[in-house]
Specification:
Blueprint: H1 8-17, H2 28-31, H3 33-36, E1 64-71, H4 92-95, E2 103-112, E3 115-122, H5 127-130, H6 140-149, E4 151-160, E5 163-166, E6 174-176, E7 181-185, E8 204-206, E9 211-216, E10 222-226, H7 243-247, H8 259-262, E11 281-284, E12 294-296, E13 304-311, E14 316-323, E15 330-338, E16 354-361, E17 366-371, H9 388-393, H10 395-402, E18 410-415, E19 422-426, E20 453-459, E21 468-476, H11 480-483, E22 503-508, E23 514-518, E24 535-539, E25 546-551, E26 557-563, E27 569-575, E28 597-603
Parallel strand pairs: 7-12
Antiparallel strand pairs: 1-28, 2-3, 3-4, 4-5, 4-6, 7-8, 9-10, 10-11, 11-12, 13-14, 14-15, 15-16, 16-17, 17-21, 18-19, 19-20, 20-21, 22-23, 23-24, 24-25, 26-27, 27-28
The structure holds MU-OXO-diiron and calcium ion (2 copies).
Amino acid sequence: MAERGLSRRRFLGATAALGAVTFFSMTPVSRSIAAALSPTASSLLGFKAVPASTADTVVVPEGYQVERLISWGDPLFTDVAEFSNQLHKNTAANQKRQFGDNNDGMSLFPVDEQTAILAVNNEYTNYELMFEHQGKNMTAADVGYAQAAHGVSVITLAKAKEGWRFDKNGRFNRRIDANTAMRISGPAQGHALLQTNADPKGEAALGTFNNCANGMTPWGTYLTCEENFNGYFGSDAQVDMSPEFSRYGIAAEDAGYSWYKFDSRFDLAKEPNEPNRFGWVVEIDPHNPNSTPVKRTALGRFKHENAELVIAEDGRVVVYLGDDERGEHIYRFVSRNKYNPVDQAANRDLLDDGELFVAKFNEDGSGEWLSLTHGQNGLTAENGFASQADILIHARLAATQVGATTMDRPEWVAVHPHEPMVFCTLTNNKNRGLKDNQPVGGPNPRAENHYGQIVRWVPTAGQHTAKDFQWDLFLMAGNPDIHGGTPYAGSSNITTDNMFNSPDGIGFDQAGRLWIQSDGNYSNQGDFAGQGNNQMLCADPKTGEVRRFLTGPVACEITGLAFTPDQKTLFVGVQHPGEKLVASQFPFGGNSVPRSSVMVITREDGGVIGS
Ligand code: FEO
Ligand code: CA
Ligand code: CA
């Protein structure tokens, strides 16, 4: 990611872009930018839209081509066995050196003209596709195999005549899984709540899992975000759940992974602090396969979606963070020290020291960042926060204490490459309006919201370190064919031709196109009739125009995107095709097991993607 210094001129550009949006009292629908700006033909979007699809394949626009880069189970080294469709033949030992399952967020690190590194999250597993017994007769060996399929895959890419390809001989290839040694760093390092029998000092964790989305730093490191970590813990013993465990969804009952039955580290009765060592952002140096990943506790503990990093005008590092759960929050980290563009080693621990904030959105279109600092805003020992480490370990409870806005499941955050504009997907929230702490209003304007929306904010004076911001809704997803004339039709930039539900992954290319990926209901029925399989769209952030770019195979989610620096190759993730045994044979066809895969998209004429 290039440094994103924000000049005064750039800020004026952003306010001009928002000029048509007025923050006077509006209905939820008309608060959307799309209602204020009439979508017109856009110079940013240069491809022909693809229709909704229910086919078991990836469809891209005319003039584009899509190929498979790598799939779950592909060997990352020359001496490793291939994935077997005879599932009992797959082993933990092989999986530890094969591409992990359920690829999610990813970042590309250019090395030279012919070489690049792609760091890819491997979020979770689908036991119904992984085991012949479909998870019903788990063994210790099965749990070991599942643990090995989680984490991160770092892969070397080489530029061949036919384009960018995975290099099995590449020197950066590495697997990080649920048992890889990691360091715990920052203000919560060593805290009593992070101490376990295996690690009485509370500073050396094992592994990372449920790695959802991602981020990257300008000093060349990868950020992987631990999301639904709670589901891996449990116990067959009687365990009293603390309010803190309950807030994070930790429960004794098996959520389906069964790890605790075979690995005592995940048994709440035996290791009650182990869950506190997950739910963090982990920083990885992908250039050094021997480097130790670091859990950065200053960024708070919650169900992290992604980590969107931008260098503020004054040189401090700002990281925007979403907590993906109904009624949870959006956070911002601001480093104490400044980014040093000429001495990358000096930036190594920038993410250990800074201030964490949580967002409050007001009805009038204003908003503010509330500090999560010990001694401020009621974050005191009397209220249950004895130290800054307490606040970070239980960031959700601290956010409630300071009065943060409860959101419709914050997913990815993306910062515009040239304007101080920040976008966050709020994927859906069936509970909105039904729970006292989740009232309808502000950026969460629809009760029982099955479609989701994208909120946008502009920080005061264009400074990502500012205390305040102005917000609007960039779009509201919906179904105009089913719900015309109601807020569930979506904002006016949503039509029969581009409708979708549940925006999740988002990211900008260098030209400022906003790419939107969906993880929603793919039934193509009822509220979702006409929307087909999950998909990827492209939006012009200034006009509000939205155009469908890609459709995925059956029962998949589209998640993860990365561009090469020349913007002529786009990597896109297809996650869990055929989940829950919905019939899919993607990507290999025949009678093969469906496998999550990273795809490579190029233009037949070699041009810039999306233009
Ligand atoms: Fe892993 Fe919130 O998506
Ligand atoms: Ca996601
Ligand atoms: Ca999701």
